[in-house]
Design goal:
binds D-glutamic acid, 6-stranded parallel sheet, single chain, 2 domains
């Protein structure tokens, strides 16, 4: 069991930003990455769909023999992690926007939060905000349209820059000095953001914290891979393995062993 894979799931390519950190911290673990690109973006789908679909793809990962799951998608975590933990008997690590570290790091105590519309609308996000009442002022902005561009492989083109300009300029004008990247796709925009705002915004991404949390959970459950185990990674897409392979090469410099898988909703969810 210890050398079974860790399932890492996102609605598309964004979770690769989390996989990158997991791979760096846990070199002996085998990883099974699942991109549900056929049904992306989750951030703009009905909330019930996100919950049901997340459960369905996580059941698929369990059926592949995964020993633990990383829900490398803020939107899916916000809407489904509770249900997953009720239904699935394995360690599940979710992600959420890094408001707490951002509030601690901010000197101006004005923090921009860029996340999907569904993340910002969720009850779990509302509770997170309420728990930090008084710590900072949070300027929450839906990054509409960014995920679709990143899925196509655009991380720095004119359309991306135009959207970032529209989303970040009001934050800077309001005195923000810190920006939470509250969607796992957005770390791939770090260079474009840097080119636009320089060091006026410190970027907060929780990928490395998630990897450390995964390491702790594996230890607690006695599930860490054997020292010296040689990892065997798989990359699966519900849409197009060739595109996933191209993007893994472009974003992570990884030569991914990629496959297209069919996980069709039954009954239809959409
Ligand atoms: N990467 C996902 C997240 O962290 C969302 C992408 C989507 O909208 O599907 O929220």
């Amino acid at each position: 069991m210890n050398n079974a894979p860790i399932g890492i799931f996102d609605s598309g390519l964004g979770g690769l930003s989390v996989l990158r950190e997991v791979r760096a911290l846990l070199p002996h673990e085998s990883l099974l990455y699942l991109a549900d690109s056929k049904y992306n973006p989750y951030g703009e789908k009905p909330e019930r769909f996100v919950e049901a679909r997340t459960l369905q793809v996580c059941e698929w990962l369990v059926a592949q023999g995964c020993k633990a799951l990383v829900i490398a998608c803020n939107t899916a975590t916000m809407h489904a992690v509770h249900t997953l933990r009720e239904r699935l008997a394995l360690p599940i690590i979710g992600v959420e926007p890094g408001l707490k570290p951002a509030a601690a790091a901010s000197r101006s105590k004005v923090v921009g939060v860029l996340a999907t519309g569904n993340t910002l609308k969720s009850a779990k996000f509302a509770r997170l905000l309420a728990s930090l009442d008084g710590e900072s002022r949070f300027l929450c902005q839906a990054g509409s349209g960014l995920v679709a561009l990143i899925e196509e492989g655009d991380v720095a083109g004119p359309a991306v820059r135009e959207k970032l300009e529209a989303y970040l300029t009001p934050m800077l004008a309001a005195g923000a000095d810190t920006l939470v990247l509250g969607c796992t796709h957005y770390p791939f925009l770090a260079q474009a953001i840097r080119g636009m705002v320089g060091d006026r915004l410190a970027l907060v991404d929780t990928g490395s914290a998630i990897a450390r949390q995964l390491q702790r959970k594996l230890g607690e459950h006695g599930l860490a891979a054997d020292a010296g185990a040689v990892p065997c990674d798989r990359y699966a897409s519900t849409k197009d393995a060739a595109h996933l392979r191209t993007m893994a090469a472009a974003l992570l410099h990884v030569d991914a062993c990629a496959e297209t898988v069919s996980i069709e909703p039954s009954p239809p969810l959409a």
